[in-house]
Amino acid sequence: MSEMSDKVIAEARSWIGTPWHHLARVKGAGVDCAQFLVAVYAAAGLIEDFDTEYYPADWFQHHDEPRFVKMVLSKAERVDVPQPADVVMFKFGRHAAHGAIVIEWPLIVHAYKDEGCVCITNVEGSPIEHRVAGFYRVKGV
Hints:
- The chain has helices at 3-13, 33-43, 59-62, 67-73; strands at residues 25-26, 30-31, 76-79, 87-92, 95-104, 107-112, 117-122, 132-138.
- The chain is α+β, with helices and mostly antiparallel strands.
- The protein has a single domain, classed as endopeptidase fold (from Nostoc punctiforme) (Alpha-Beta Complex), CATH 3.90.1720.10.
- The model has no long low-confidence stretch (mean pLDDT 91).
């Protein structure tokens, strides 16, 4: 792993246990998966912190616009093989609507509503295994 990958993963791990909370971005208090990605990559110095603007918790069930993937693609490029510190997107509803950070595939760290917090998940054999929608590398990793 590179020094930058190590930095991203260390920052992501420092959020473990933070409760899941829609639209929040406060370590230890609350975060959702989109805000988690912004917070981690900004703290690692790979992106400028930015406002994601309001999004309903269920937007992916009712809209055709792939908002989350567009946000990821504004900061990253799609890759075929995941490396540590890459983003993995999962399809829920109509689009890829859940994002996580690869520790070492298939281990990820993510703000997961079903677990109620930021946690580590082994994707293999998990309920989200068949929802993988793509991998993305943030510029500079």
